[in-house]
Amino acid sequence: TSRQKDCNMSPFVGCCVAAFLVLLPTASVEGSHFRGGTLSWESYKHDDNLIHCSYRMSWRRSSGSHECDQDTINNGQLVRGEGSWNTPDGGVSARYYCTDFSEQEDWTQGVN
Asked: What is the reported pTM?
């Protein structure tokens, strides 16, 4: 003989499932132009009050100001970034040197 079990869901589990289904559409988002980045820093050897910040940023190549090609890389041109880094002495432009790009995959990346 086969047996069947009733599947009774507690009110708490029901609320969790409902919340999951409501919030699920907000979890899938699409970035428009920023693709990611890393930021690192190290202190200067002779001055513990100063640090050197390095970053690598990736952008959608066709987003306007982030176009990069082999000439940009060969000429060592600064590419206009977006915004600035805030420091105690004021803002520092987030420009970068393009190091890599892909026309086919529509991305570019670079370092400061």
From this structure: 0.62
